[in-house]
Amino acid sequence: MNWGIRIVILYTGFVALILTLVFKASGERVELVTKDYYEQELVHQEKMNAQNRGLEYKDLIEIKTMQDAIQLNFSEALPPMKDTKISFYCPSNSDEDREFVLLSTEKTKMISTTQWKKGYYALRVQWNNNGQSIIVEDTVFIP
Question: pTM for this structure?
Fold first, then answer.
């Protein structure tokens, strides 16, 4: 076997490898964090301010993870919570994201996790108080 044939074999193998990588990469699912990512980027500073306001309330929300449920206990010391949303964001699959509404009279929220995919979720509790948005974030693991 001479050098010319070896170079052709090497080149053909390289092209086959690149085509395989392109084929596999084109089938990969790529998702943004949210569907309206670019619109949310415009209000990023407002979101950061809401998260900073929420830092003082993080210890007033107790999160209990059980075998097939999550219990959220809200302290009486929290300011009035209007339009409260509880969101669970699954970083590995946006189809597993969940969102719940908390009534202003509820101080405990029990959420069943029997149908959820096991793994880590980013928890966000967001509410309004006197016209200001407050965001408390944490992570939970569903066993």
Answer: 0.72
